[in-house]
C-alpha cells in the first residue's frame, strides 16, 4: 500500500497548522462559550455549535490569520506575496463576517470574496476555517459530557462535519472522532454512520494490506465509508486531527472504490 498519495509539503503544512491550533485553543477560556442546548433542535440534528453563543475575540482572530500567513509564507515562499495580501483586506467587520460564513460553511461567499479581491480561490475559506476551529474544539470540549451520540447522516453532532474517522477502544468499542472539532462519541461496531444501517450483510470492512490497524467500514446501502483505526496498540495516541491526516490514503482507497462521506440513502437521492 502506497502511503505517499499526498505531497509531503501538504502534510507538513497541515501538521504545523494543527500545532498552531492546539496552541491557540490553549489560550482560550471555556467561559467564552455559552451553549444553550435545545433538546428539540438537537434531536432535529442542529449541530450544538450552532446553538452556542461564542464570544469571539476579533483582534485575536486577526492575529491568528496573520500567523497562518507567516506559516504559509515561510513554508512556501512563492505563495507568500499572494497570501500576504489577505492581511490588508481584513478589518474587524470582515473578520466577523468570515467567522459567520465559515461557521455555516458558505463556500459561495468565500469564492466570491476571492474573486472580488483577486486572490486564489482556496485562500479565504482555508484561512477562516483554520482560525475558526479552535473555537469549535472548545465548544466540543465544554459539551463532551452532554453530546455522547450522533444522528446517522447528520455528521458531527457538535460542528456538522461529515463523519469519516473512528477509533477502536477497550474491548473493540467503536468511537467516532471528528477531526474538525475533536468531538467523539460511541457507535455500534456494525453500524453505518451515514445511514444507520446495522445489517452486517451490507456493512463490509475493507482491510489494508500491510496495515493491520486500519480498516475502512463501508455500507452497501448508502455507499458511505468510515475509516476505523485500531489505535489500542499505539504507543502514543495522536489527536484525531493528526490521525485523520495520517490515514488520508484510506480516504483515497474508499473514494476510488466509489464510497463517500456525504452519503445519503439511495432512495432519497
Ligand atoms: Zn465536529
Ligand atoms: Zn449507510
UniProtKB/TrEMBL annotation:
Domain FdhE C-terminal: from-to ranges: 190-262
UniProt GO molecular function: ferric iron binding
Record has Iron-sulfur as a keyword: no
One Pfam entry name: FdhE_C
Superkingdom: Bacteria
GO (cellular component) term, any one: cytosol
Keyword Magnesium: no
InterPro entries per record: FdhE-like_sf, FdhE_C, Formate_DH_accessory
Name of this protein: FdhE protein
Source organism of this protein record: Mesobacillus persicus
Amino acid at each position: 500500500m502506497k502511503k505517499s498519495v499526498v505531497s509531503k509539503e501538504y502534510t507538513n503544512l497541515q501538521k504545523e497548522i494543527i500545532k498552531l491550533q492546539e496552541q491557540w485553543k490553549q489560550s482560550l477560556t471555556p467561559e467564552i462559550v455559552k451553549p444553550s442546548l435545545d433538546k428539540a433542535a438537537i434531536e432535529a440534528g442542529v449541530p450544538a455549535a450552532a446553538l452556542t453563543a461564542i464570544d469571539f475575540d476579533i483582534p485575536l482572530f486577526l492575529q491568528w490569520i496573520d500567523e497562518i500567513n507567516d506559516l504559509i509564507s515561510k513554508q512556501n515562499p512563492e505563495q507568500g506575496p499572494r497570501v500576504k495580501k489577505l492581511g490588508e483586506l481584513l478589518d474587524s467587520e470582515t473578520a466577523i463576517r468570515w467567522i459567520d460564513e465559515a461557521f455555516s460553511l458558505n463556500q459561495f461567499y468565500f469564492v466570491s470574496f476571492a474573486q472580488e479581491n483577486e486572490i486564489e480561490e482556496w485562500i479565504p475559506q482555508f484561512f477562516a476555517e483554520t482560525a475558526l476551529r479552535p473555537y469549535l474544539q472548545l465548544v466540543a470540549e465544554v459539551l463532551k459530557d452532554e453530546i455522547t451520540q450522533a444522528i446517522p447522516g447528520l455528521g458531527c453532532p457538535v460542528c456538522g462535519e461529515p463523519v469519516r474517522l473512528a477509533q477502536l477502544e477497550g474491548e473493540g468499542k467503536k468511537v467516532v472522532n471528528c477531526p474538525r472539532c475533536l468531538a467523539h462519541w460511541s457507535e455500534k461496531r456494525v453500524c453505518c454512520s451515514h445511514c444507520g444501517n446495522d445489517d452486517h450483510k451490507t456493512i463490509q470492512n475493507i482491510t489494508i494490506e500491510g496495515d493491520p490497524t486500519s480498516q475502512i467500514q463501508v455500507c452497501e446501502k448508502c455507499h458511505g465509508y468510515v475509516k476505523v483505526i485500531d489505535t489500542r496498540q499505539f504507543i502514543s495516541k495522536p489527536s484525531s486531527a493528526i490521525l485523520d491526516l495520517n490515514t488520508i490514503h484510506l480516504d483515497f482507497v474508499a473514494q476510488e472504490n466509489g464510497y463517500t462521506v456525504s452519503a445519503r440513502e439511495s432512495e432519497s437521492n
